[in-house]
Amino acid sequence: MAHGIMLCDQPFLSDLTKVNLLALMAAKVSVMRDLASFESLLALDQTSDFIIAIASLNNRDIATQVGILAGRYCPNTPLFFLGHVTQLPEKSFNIQNPFDQLALVKTLLKVLKWDKEDLKQQRWTDYIPMPLSLLEHIEKAKDDFYWINDHESGPYNLLCKKDDLIQDKISLWKSQKIKAVYVRAENKFQMLASVNAHLLSAMQRALNGSTEDGLEQVQKAAHLVSQITCDPEEFHKLSEEVKFQMVELSKVASDLVCQISHKLPSNLSKLLELYNNSEKDFVQFHSMLTTYMTIQMIHKEIWYSPQMTQKISLFLFFHDIILIPLYIKYPDLPRDEDLLKDYPKFSAKERQLALYHPKITSNMLESIPNLPIGLDQLILQHHGNSRGDCLETELFEGISTLGKVVIVAEKFATILINNKEEITEEVKKKLFEKLESKLGKKSYIKLLEPLRKIPI
């Protein structure tokens, strides 16, 4: 039986990978959560058939470090990265969408040069383990579930039958130190189809959680979607199923942002506190802050509707999503998109992504069904022009009223995040003067009235 080593700090992704590789390749995977443990295992086990690593650990690009460690201890072992890699180490392979398990399996088989005969010769197990973490959203068992006292041998004892309700049972199993249940191997594909919805379930559960938990889940979703959308050419090659899952995840994330907005006190200080006292990434927090202010600004307008809340939140979730990998790669990147055009460290491709991200993102989303009408246009115009770039700071008049409201809120969000002073009345006055000078046009400046009513 083939075996590999995986570096991943996301339990759901590592559980999903372990289950898929065991089910589809009869391969076992040992998972490490941090670089130190990963290096220790590489030093001890230099006979693994493959190494898999997530591209980003704690919001840091780790591909180079992983490549050095793998080259030191296992120079002949193929190395695979899940997620967007800014600089791929030599002789390694990249699966852009970490949740595209089929792509991972296909790449592994190709690199390992396995054919159907090789797969037949693997020591296939009669039962496949399903970690409990992958079952928490499933109401009924999709097959008979079994458990064993010894992880390596039977007998397999019947735990519950197909179609049994299992949510109450999961708590009991956890108290009994059962970490995984087993399903018959011939039914593995039905189970795999069920567990792939787990991340959506986690997002749904976060809707009723704390503000901090909610922000954490939104950030996870944003990073996942940014990895899927970071390469426009590859994005258009994705299957409709992957795109559909991305949209569903984004919708739930945007719902979560709306819920967080409603839970916050009627001022911005709490939200700014959360950003300053944590490691929340700039792009997603900036979107969160803009969403909150936009909803507050239009809530009493006659053309406002509850459906518009999700449209605004979904738009702001997506509008800067492809910038997230750039902010991870370049910690000194300005926290002001108007300054991106002057940043000197970008490669030619990165500069194109940064300066034309409104147009690129709009083009990616315009062909996807089930998105609100006009979402792609809002994204195209969110830097105040219809070209879809951020080359100029001058705002154009030919933008919808909703588009102008969002632009005003977004520019004020940037000013607030970059402000280092305690917000007194005098400082607040200076911040609004700065915003007014950035807006310039009367049709934008008149929207300051509802913005001033939001307590800070």
Description:
The protein has three domains: 1-123, 3-Layer(aba) Sandwich (Rossmann fold); 125-189, no CATH class; 199-452, Hypothetical protein af1432. The protein contains 22 helices and eleven strands. The chain has 456 residues and is an alpha/beta fold. The longest helix has 24 residues, at 240-263. A hairpin with a 2-residue loop joins strand 4 and strand 5 (60-61). The chain is globular and about 75 Å long. Helix 1 packs across helix 4, helix 13 (282-298) packs across helix 19 and helix 19 (401-418) packs across helix 20. The mean pLDDT is 78. The strands form four sheets. The protein has a five-stranded parallel beta sheet with strand order 2-1-3-6-7, sandwiched between helices. It has a two-stranded antiparallel sheet with strand order 4-5. A two-stranded antiparallel sheet has the order 8-11. The chain has helices at residues 11-25, 35-44, 63-73, 101-112, 116-121, 167-175, 188-195, 198-206, 211-229, 232-235, 240-263, 269-276, 282-298, 306-318, 324-329, 348-355, 357-365, 375-380, 401-418, 425-439, 442-445, 448-452; strands at residues 3-7, 28-32, 50-54, 56-57, 60-61, 79-82, 92-95, 127-131, 145-147, 157-160, 180-184.
